[in-house]
Specification:
The chain is an alpha/beta fold. The chain contains 14 helices and 15 strands. It is globular and about 75 Å long. It binds ligand SAJ.
Length: about 425
């Protein structure tokens, strides 16, 4: 039994909320996971999962079987409330400026407000624009004046502790990274950060660093922006290399032999719900200053169009071209299609009508409307043009003899 057993409500049972809720439950806490998706709630209560992530099914089953995790569509009273809901962006009125949408955080805060008691802790896990954690405090002050601060003691609801603990796990490795990664916890005051640290220490083996909430929010956004900018550099190199007639993979491999150079991999673009989204939170907060971060987003967003045009140009040389697209997910060895550049390119090829499009995606059963899914061997046999869009393990070891008569566009460098 967990020494400091708490009752915890986790708002949002997606890729972050569900693993976190299950982990806390297996460590002995009493956890209620809340989601508006009734079907997901029922699936979880039966010990199964509604999303794909290695080993998550085992963790959820053991959490539910222990009696420590139950899912529900409504919150209830607890010691700690963890908010792990989506923070997407909405398209701004000005072209190319995407504005963060914190309405789910706002709704979750309003949903828990009636259940708050003095001394409760609220933790925001969702990646959020700077100031969101403090805004939670303002909503609580409004909705629960009985919990509002005594004059002069603090700025935000000192009777309720509030901290930001941004999630950092890599899809595909969530369970391991949840335990092993270092964490940053930013409180609206020191006591909030310390209280959150004590809870995360019950399952986290990494080092926990304490700071204020705005610095924690910014650090998370900066981590994903760093990655985006560096991938944009690699993607820009791939365009330049194509123009000047050199192999970008050779260039990068050789440049990376320098002790202080570490160039990332070019690809068909940047996908997923994190790296393609979070930099916009920085750009919208400081549009005039964040020039490099914005440009990186634009470079990465442009790459699928470039690939699409390249394939179309090759296809124009055939009378009835058969185009084989290898991979649909946003990165290797997962089934997640969100914001996937591979999907965007494949859809673009289908709708342009340049030829017959055959798709091989070993990790999903259904593509999308108008997409023919096939076995790898059939695509390799029948396609005139092969477009590698995802570096899935299945594609790596194929017999190169099969490629001899084909036009190959390898956006991931797996067959170089
Ligand atoms: N990609 C490239 N070239 C590279 C590396 C990645 O084109 O060299 C592409 C991938 O194919 C994919 C996209 O970038 O389309 C993002 O993939 P990723 O593996 O870099 O990252 P995510 O989106 O799966 O997870 C990221 C992680 N953040 C960082 O590595 C800084 C993860 O730790 C975060 O928790 C997650 O975002 C999140 O939720 O914010």
């Amino acid at each position: 039994m967990q020494k400091n057993r708490q009752k915890i409500v986790v708002m949002g049972l997606g890729y972050i909320g569900l693993p976190t809720a299950s982990m806390l439950a297996t460590k002995g806490h009493e956890v209620v996971g809340v989601d508006i998706n009734e079907e997901a709630v029922n699936i979880i209560n039966s010990g199964r999962i509604h999303i794909v992530e290695p080993d998550l099914d085992i963790l959820v089953r053991s959490a539910v079987n222990s009696g420590n995790l139950k899912a529900s569509t409504t919150p209830e009273e607890a010691d700690t409330f963890i908010i792990a809901v989506p923070t997407p962006f909405k398209n701004g009125e000005q072209a190319h400026l995407k504005i963060p949408d914190v309405s789910y955080v706002d709704a979750a805060t309003r949903a828990i407000a009636p259940f708050l008691r003095e001394g409760n802790l609220i933790i925001l896990e969702s990646t959020s624009p700077v100031g969101t954690t403090e805004a939670i405090g303002e909503i609580i002050n409004q909705l629960r004046p009985d919990l509002a601060q005594h004059p002069g003691t603090n700025n935000y609801s000192p009777q309720v502790f509030i901290a930001h603990c941004p999630e950092r796990v890599l899809p595909g490795y969530i369970i391991r990274e949840l335990v092993d990664n270092d964490r940053i916890i930013g409180g609206i005051n020191r006591a909030s950060a310390e209280k959150a640290r004590d809870l995360y220490n019950t399952f986290c083996n990494g080092t926990i660093f304490l700071t204020d909430s705005k610095t924690a929010e910014m650090s998370k956004l900066v981590e994903n922006s760093f990655r985006d900018v560096n991938i944009a550099f690699a993607n820009e190199l791939s365009l330049i290399s194509d123009r000047v007639g050199v192999n970008v993979w050779d260039v990068i491999e050789l440049a990376n032999r320098h002790p202080r150079v570490n160039i990332l991999n070019p690809g068909p673009g940047v996908g997923g719900h994190c790296i393609a989204v979070d930099p916009w939170f920085v750009v919208s907060a400081a549009p005039e200053e964040a020039r490099l971060i914005r440009t990186a987003r634009e470079v990465n967003d442009h790459k699928p169009h470039w690939v699409l045009n390249k394939v179309k140009a090759k296809a124009a040389r055939f009378k009835e071209p058969v185009i084989g697209c290898l991979g649909l997910s946003f990165k290797a060895n997962i089934d997640d299609l969100r914001e996937s550049p591979a999907m965007e390119i494949t859809k673009g090829l289908v709708s342009s009508g340049v030829g017959r499009v055959m798709v091989c995606e070993p990790n999903v059963c259904n593509g999308s409307a108008g997409m023919e899914l096939h076995e790898l061997s059939q695509v390799l046999r029948e396609a005139d043009i092969l477009v590698v869009l995802v570096d899935h393990d299945e594609f790596k070891g194929i017999d190169r003899e099969l490629l001899k008569e084909k036009v190959v566009i390898d956006t991931r460098g797996v067959w170089r």
